[in-house]
Automatic annotation (TrEMBL):
It is found in: Membrane. Transmembrane segments: none annotated. Keywords: Membrane, Signal. This is Outer membrane protein, putative. PANTHER family: BLL7405 PROTEIN. One of its GO terms (cellular component) is membrane. Residues 35-201 form the Outer membrane protein beta-barrel domain. Gene3D superfamilies: 2.40.160.20. It comes from Limimaricola hongkongensis DSM 17492. The keyword Membrane applies. InterPro entries: Beta-barrel_OMP (IPR027385), OMP-like (IPR051692), OMP/PagP_B-barrel (IPR011250). The keyword Signal applies.
Amino acid sequence: MKFSTSTLALALGVVAAPALAGGLAEPVADPVAPAAPVAVAPAAPVSDWTGAYVGAQLGYGQAEASDDSFDEDGAVYGAQVGYNYDFGRFVLGGELDYVGTEIDSDANEIDGVARAKLRAGYDAGAFLPYVTAGYASAYTDEEIGGDDQFDGYVYGAGLDYKVTENIVVGGEVLQHEFEELGNTDVDLDATTAAMRVSYKF
């Protein structure tokens, strides 16, 4: 069988066309899905509140007896010593303090108040907001019902701020409750608000 030149050329063109078309096509890459965002853990507190401290305080107090025999206010001033332990975000500590007072009347005077408190706070870096509660003992100039020392309890809240790693300033508001003073049915309530400065070891 004989083929003409035109027939042969046409057959070669039909065979070569797909090959040439495929050879000129650019490869198409599969689309890549964007990477999922990675959650970043919150930064740990930069301050460590663990350690002992000593300091001083100055403020104002107001005391009132349940029978209206005493309703006075005045300055409060004293010193504190304590220890905190930082668990990461939670801070637990204990503190002893004593404040003298200028809360007095013509009949009597509150000489001072001693306190033993537990503190629980939140480590917010340089800030430490906390709540506190514990035992309080008040001393008066004159006897009430045969006694001049009265046991009670105290509770309140405060905020400390770390100026440096060793210097801490803050404020604290406390409520004191003393029930049945001496051999009487008289209760005494006292509120104090004080500014504090402490040296942390």
